[in-house]
Specification:
single chain, about 120 residues, alpha+beta, 5 strands, about 35% helix, about 30% strand
Length: about 120
């Protein structure tokens, strides 16, 4: 949704784990640290709502899809404001929201959600 020329911000990160592990970790992080709005186990997609309304906007909607990439996965993230918002403050908030999701997933993966050893 583009309001007043605003375009959602997109970013992605490679993680050296299978899509199943990446998605399980993403769901775990979403449930613990964010407000999980929706998820799709078939499409490996999670949608989050991050913050409530404030002076800088009405919060952010974050959609993340896990996509296979070689021996790992790519987390494709799209951030857009909720409500009629935009501009510099919202853009900064969107970048911060994306960073916090990527950081949380990375920390969770490093803390033990690793690939199981081959059988």
């Amino acid at each position: 949704m583009a309001l007043f020329g605003y375009k959602p911000q997109c970013d992605d990160r490679y993680v050296p784990v299978s899509p199943a592990v990446a998605y399980a970790t993403l769901r775990s992080v979403a449930e613990k640290q964010f407000k999980l709005k929706a998820s799709d186990d078939f499409m490996l997609t999670v949608e989050l709502l991050t913050t409530a309304a404030s002076l800088s906007g009405f919060g952010e909607r974050i959609r993340i899809q896990v996509v296979p990439s070689g021996v790992g996965s790519v987390l494709q993230l799209t951030v857009e404001p909720r409500g009629m918002s935009g501009g510099l403050l919202q853009s900064t908030a969107n970048r911060q929201a994306a960073k916090s999701v990527f950081r949380a997933v990375s920390e969770e993966l490093q803390d033990g959600h690793r690939e199981p050893p081959p059988a």
